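General statements about sequence and structure are easier to judge against a single worked case. Part of our work consisted of pairing the sequence of a single chain with a tokenised description of its backbone. The amino acid sequence and the backbone structure tokens for this protein are reproduced below.

***
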Amino acid sequence: MPEMQVRKLGIRPFSAKQRIVLNWWHKNSRFSARDAIICDGAVRSGKTFCMVLSFVIWSFYEFKNSDFALCGKTIRSLRRNMVTPAIPILKSLGFECEEKLSQNILNVRRNGVVNRFYLFGGKDESSAALIQGMTLSGVLFDEVALMPRSFVEQAMARCSVAGSRFWFNCNPEHPEHWFYLEWIKKADDKNALYLHFTMDDNPSLSEKVKRRYENLYTGVFYERFVKGRWAAVYGAVYPFMIDEKMYCNVPCDEFSRYAISCDYGTVNPSSFGLWGRHNGVWYRIDEYYFNSRTEGFQKTDEEHYKALCALAGDRNIESVVVDPSAASFIETIRRHGKFRVIPAQNNVVNGIRKVSQMLKDGSVKICKNCKAAKREFAIYRWDNKKGDDSPLKENDHAMDEIRYFVTTIIGGGSRTFALAAERQEENRV
């Protein structure tokens, strides 16, 4: 990209590693014979932007009027992370871009040549069927480690055109992950160029921003997202929560909004958390915790519902988010018609990451009177015996409902209240 265009767009010159990504496929590059490129490493390390930019430019260098695939965990995240940021840059370089949102297609035109980029979401095993039957000249996977192997391999099988190549981009996961074992560890065998990124490889990232990210993560998430390492889980899930300073008194001022999160159990404990929003921060201001094993008896759905009402008091509760497996309790709440109930989003590891981040940056706070939550924070641990990212299924009931609240009510790292609604499936090709 010409220096003048870089400056006009407010982009700093690319780092040495980014320039390799931009040019690795070119005939004058020493890597031009490679069939694939793999970029992994820390968050905000500048790999995603230069990957998509390079992918599109390469498509016009090698092909005319051809089909390609852009793949993300979801089409929504793909548009957010890759497509939307890339379009202004591509236009500045003389490309014409036309998004067909209903069809999930990005048409890119230059000098009478049109290449088509189909957008796919690879969120589960069923996603592989979406890409069957296509003939592709190349595919780019954004956050490939979050996609099922069946989807990735099906997309690769579609690249039957001579000269087609694979592009992989991801943040690290656990070291037993199939992509780490089969592609990163065997990059040379796969004839793939492997590049590891750190935050220092992103020239647009200030030292202040780097320090902020370093302070946001601890434990395994620090190793993965800051250091960019394929690290195994170990020890406490929230090690920083043993610090008494992480807990606060209930604010004396009025709260602008209220919500409740519920992890429901009959034999297992039930944990409900009352949340109030004040000055942009969500506080867990009170709780209900019932353990039938220690109490010596079980409660019915109606008895737990009475406890929910007592926890709410006369407050205007905007939403009650509940463990999605608690069908009978959800139906009980709905039957009474008092509260708006929402089944929780239940991605465990991603939820833990979001909870950890928000506790660290202060957008979510736990009040000192929430003693059951404090106890679980101190003893909630990763299951080191499993070959994946799994916490032990014990001492996790307050932990689960706090995670439900963060992922479902706040949602996606937003700093403002998001009115939750039951989600509709994205339109996918």
